[in-house]
Design brief:
By secondary structure, the chain is an alpha/beta fold. Helices cover 38% and strands 18% of the residues.
């Protein structure tokens, strides 16, 4: 009986998240905002990727900085002339649609064309919680090892785009990029993987092209 109750509660939580995600999606459509969910582990380079994209975008850009605590990424986004809000989840290891919906109350979506939602650094928890964005982008770094995709297949199988970041460090980390690419094709045969070095801006234009974002360096 206890197990059945837990399963019912989980089902209710996921169904409620789906309802609010659709509400977010409708809001983005009404406001003409293109929104992207940026996922990845801590240190994968999500923030740097967003910063680099922003540098080449001649549009009004907003960002949601999701973290357990603090405003470090929020401050970085503000320094790049982005409208931004910080969402601290406390103990929750992911953003959900409700967190985002609440955070949007502090943003003027009429003044934003593109919105990057930087999820909490995690490759497991966010999988079951869509936010209402048009695409999900997963960032993984070579510093995490060449086994990260096969260890976390679900999030990569559902991604619209996977970005392999910090490729300049592959040799130093003794990481085989071909192994990562093969693992990705195994879990997501029709997916796209783009190699980047966000720190130096390499591969960013290709990411923008995939997402159909006007970009110029």
């Amino acid at each position: 009986m206890h197990k059945t109750t837990e399963m019912d509660m989980e089902k209710n939580i996921l169904e409620e998240n789906e309802r609010i995600a659709k509400k977010n999606e409708k809001l983005f459509e009404e406001k003409g905002v293109r929104a992207f969910n940026i996922l990845g582990a801590i240190g994968s380079g999500k923030t740097s990727l967003i910063e680099r994209l922003r540098e080449g975008i001649d549009q009004r850009v907003g960002a949601v900085a999701g973290d357990l605590n603090g405003k470090d990424d929020y401050e970085r986004f503000r320094q790049k002339d982005m409208s931004a809000v910080a969402i601290n989840t406390g103990k929750d290891c992911h953003l959900d649609a409700h967190y985002v919906n609440h955070g949007l109350e502090d943003m003027d979506l009429d003044e934003i064309d593109l919105l990057f939602i930087e999820n909490v650094g995690n490759l497991i928890c966010p999988v079951d919680f869509p936010l209402g964005t048009e695409a999900e982008v997963v960032v993984v770094s070579v510093t995490e090892g060449d086994d990260m995709i096969r260890k976390h297949p679900l999030i990569f199988s559902r991604s619209d785009l996977t970005i392999l970041n910090k490729v300049d460090l592959a040799d130093a980390m003794e990481v085989d990029i071909e192994t990562i690419k093969e693992d990705y094709k195994e879990v997501n045969p029709h997916g796209t993987l783009i190699k980047t070095n966000a720190k130096e801006g390499k591969g960013i234009e290709e990411v923008a092209d995939f997402l159909d974002i006007p970009y110029s360096v």
